[in-house]
Specification:
Blueprint lengths: L10 H12 L6 H20 L2
């Protein structure tokens, strides 16, 4: 189950996210943030397994 959260980001960061969404890579901001967090977490898991 997904849960709603709130985050605060720099305006520059938000503009970059919006530009990426406009290319069609992500459906929306939530998709972009969730994808990015999952990528970071998977990389961290890989580092811990070394």
């Amino acid at each position: 189950m997904k849960q709603k959260i709130s985050v605060t980001v720099e305006e520059k960061t938000l503009k970059l996210i919006d530009e990426i969404i406009a290319t069609g890579i992500f459906r929306n901001k939530s998709h972009a943030v969730e994808f990015s967090l999952n990528k970071i977490l998977k990389e961290k898991e890989g580092e811990e397994g070394k």
